[in-house]
Structures are given as structure tokens and as C-alpha cells.
Write a structure and sequence with these properties.
By secondary structure, the chain is mainly α. The protein is 80% helix and 0% strand. The longest helix is centred in the middle third of the chain and has 34 residues.
């Protein structure tokens, strides 16, 4: 039987998925700005300003939290965050080559697959051969099949456009590669959360709630991701 917490969690995931799928839409609608202008505004507001405000509002003694964890733990967050930042740059470059639909399908599908399997194997290896682990692998397989089908559909569309146009269109294969690498690196933010347990515990000790303590993990990851 589904509990109220489970229902709330599912609704939050659905809300996050809709927001994540729509955040690049203004780039498609805004024809007056160059790609770099849109991406700069997104980086400053979405990666630095808004997350900082949210963390300050939800994690008491935020800056003191980081002094309570080891430098190695923070270094891991920086590494994960910087890799995620590179993935965002690759995502933006793929977007201009593949379009919104295919880029999102390949990036998010690959990111979900890697982000789900890596913590499972690294932290919960005992679950791999269980029913729960089998269902996760089955879900990841379905995601990868979907990514492959989207890639084939995109290639077919590209070939059709080539036949209809007198100009030679380039960049599909490079865009597909960029989207795939972006998906792999995009999972690094999820890995930061998976391996940021010491920061979560420190935030909870400083008064953060169980639901909000993860915001302390996001911040060093996002700051490092802003640089690329």
C-alpha cells in the first residue's frame, strides 16, 4: 500500500522531471540571443544564485557545515560538480545540432542509466542479484533501448532533411556523441549526492531537516559545475 510519503515523493519526482524537461525551452523560443548569452544567464541564475538562496533558507549554519567535514569529501563534491558542469556545456552544444527532443532523450536517458547503476554497484553490491536489483537493471535496459531508438529516429530524420534540402547539413553524429558524453557526465551530480553522506549528516547536526539536508551537498557541486 502506498503511504502519503511515497505519494509525495512520486509527485515531487514528476514535478522535477517536468521542470528539468522544460528548462531549455526558452533557448528554442528566444531567437534574439546567441547560445552563449542564454547559457550564461542559466549558469548564473540556475547554478549559483537560486541554489545558494535555497540552501541558505533550508540549512541552518550552512557555511559552518562545511568546516565539519573532511577536505577529501569536499574535493569529491568538486570533482563530481565540475564533471557535471562540463556535461551542461556538451548538452548545450548538442542542442544546437540535434534539437530539443533527441538531445533530451539521449542525455537524460544515459544520465539516468549511469546514475542509477553506479551507486547500486558501488554502495549496494549485495542488492545486485536480488529482485530489487533485477528490477533496476530491467529499468535501465528499457532506458537504453529508448535512447537507441531515439538515436535511430534522429538519424532517419536527418537523412530525410538531407534529401529535401540542397544544402549539406553537418553535425548530427558529433551532436549525438556530445549528447551521449553529456549524459554520462550528467550523472555525476547524482553521484555527488550518493557519496555526500558526511555532508548530509553534518547539515542535519546543524539543524537541517531530513528532507532538506541534501541541499548542503548540492552547493559545492553546483559551484564547481558553474566554472566550466
Amino acid at each position: 500500500m502506498l503511504t502519503s510519503d511515497t505519494v509525495q515523493a512520486v509527485l515531487l519526482v514528476l514535478c522535477a522531471a517536468i521542470m528539468n524537461a522544460a528548462y531549455a525551452l526558452p533557448m528554442k523560443l528566444n531567437r534574439k540571443w546567441d547560445w552563449e548569452h542564454s547559457w550564461f544567464a542559466f549558469s548564473v541564475l540556475g547554478v549559483a544564485v537560486v541554489p545558494t538562496l535555497i540552501a541558505l533558507l533550508t540549512v541552518p549554519g550552512l557555511w559552518s557545515t562545511y568546516s565539519a567535514v573532511s577536505g577529501g569529501a569536499l574535493a569529491k563534491m568538486v570533482l563530481f560538480g565540475a564533471s557535471w558542469g562540463v556535461s551542461l556545456v556538451f548538452f548545450g552544444l548538442a542542442l544546437t545540432r540535434l534539437g530539443l527532443a533527441i538531445t533530451f532523450a539521449v542525455c537524460l536517458g544515459t544520465s539516468a542509466a549511469v546514475g542509477a547503476l553506479t551507486p547500486l554497484i558501488a554502495q549496494h553490491a549485495n542488492l545486485v542479484m536480488t529482485r530489487q536489483g533485477g528490477l533496476i537493471f530491467l529499468g535501465v535496459l528499457a532506458i537504453l533501448v529508448g535512447v537507441a531508438l531515439c538515436g535511430l529516429a534522429g538519424k532517419s530524420r536527418e537523412a530525410a532533411l538531407q534529401r529535401e534540402s540542397s544544402t549539406v547539413r553537418k553535425g548530427f553524429l558529433s551532436g549525438l556523441l556530445l549528447a551521449f558524453i553529456s549524459g554520462i557526465l550528467g550523472s555525476m551530480l547524482n553521484l555527488g549526492l550518493a557519496f555526500g553522506g558526511s555532508i548530509q549528516r553534518a547539515a542535519q547536526q546543524h539543524g537541517a531537516s531530513l528532507a532538506m539536508m541534501s541541499n548542503a551537498v548540492w552547493l559545492p557541486c553546483l559551484y564547481a559545475g558553474l566554472l566550466p
